[in-house]
């Protein structure tokens, strides 16, 4: 795989390298409109995928689930308490509160809806990683093919 990184030096302000290859400062790159349009189209497709629908459904149910919201609020409050006790260098209280957070987190993790929500997050991440991998691999193949030496021309007869 070829990794290409354009470098712009302060001493050399030319628009091209010594080899005639254009140089770009990433702040000056303008993405082609067709690439941006296809990116937005792909984002729309992903946004309407079953994985995203499941995530949105689970997220809405979590927001409406009273016990889950109480647990999340309690965990956030205890996290703030830890910061306060750390500033007072009270390690005993920090450890006590960390144990309380762990118990709250265990209860939260034991709720099936939370497990479903976490799975839906994982599914979306997998989908996004897969899309990025396909794009990266496809571009890498094209870069490798174009940068490789041309294959020998054959006549196709009797070879």
Question: What key phrases describe this protein's structure?
Answer:
0% strand, disordered N terminus, 67% helix, mainly alpha, YheA/YmcA-like_dom_sf, disordered C terminus, 5 helices, elongated, RicAFT regulatory complex protein RicA family protein, Com_YlbF, 159 residues, single chain
The averaged pLDDT comes out at 83
| N-to-C SSE string, H for helix and E for strand | HHHHH
Report the count of strand segments.
0
**Assembly annotation:** single chain
Shape, per Cα inertia axes:
elongated
Low-confidence stretches: 1-14, 153-159
Instruction: Supply the number of helical segments.
Output: 5
Beta-sheet strand percentage? under 5%
Fraction of helical residues: 55-70%
Distance between the termini: 31 Å
Counting helices, strands and paired strands, the structural category is: mainly alpha
Radius of gyration: 27 Å
Q: Characterize the biggest β-sheet.
A: none
Describe the structure.
With 159 residues, the chain is mostly helical. α2 runs antiparallel to α5 and α3 packs antiparallel against α4 (91-109). 67% of the residues lie in helices and 0% in strands. It has helices at 33-47, 50-64, 66-87, 91-109, 112-147. The model is unreliable at 1-14 and 153-159 (pLDDT under 50). The protein contains 5 helices and no strands. The radius of gyration is 27 Å and the shape is elongated.
Topology of helices and strands:
Layout: H1 33-47, H2 50-64, H3 66-87, H4 91-109, H5 112-147
Summarize the structure.
Helix content is 67%, strand content 0%. With 159 residues, it is mostly helical.
């Amino acid at each position: 795989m070829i990794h290409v990184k354009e470098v712009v030096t302060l001493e050399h302000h030319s628009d091209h390298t010594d080899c005639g290859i254009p140089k770009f400062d990433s702040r000056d790159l303008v993405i082609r409109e067709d690439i941006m349009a296809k990116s937005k189209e792909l984002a729309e497709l992903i946004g309407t995928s079953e994985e995203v629908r499941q995530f949105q459904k689970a997220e809405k149910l979590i927001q409406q689930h009273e016990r889950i919201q109480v647990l999340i609020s309690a965990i956030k409050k205890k996290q703030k308490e830890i910061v306060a006790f750390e500033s007072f260098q009270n390690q005993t209280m920090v450890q006590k509160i960390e144990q309380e957070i762990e118990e709250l987190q265990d209860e939260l993790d034991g709720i099936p809806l939370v497990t479903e929500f976490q799975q839906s997050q994982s599914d979306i991440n997998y989908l996004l990683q897969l899309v990025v991998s396909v794009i990266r691999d496809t571009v890498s193949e094209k870069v490798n093919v174009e940068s490789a030496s041309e294959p020998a021309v054959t006549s196709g007869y009797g070879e």
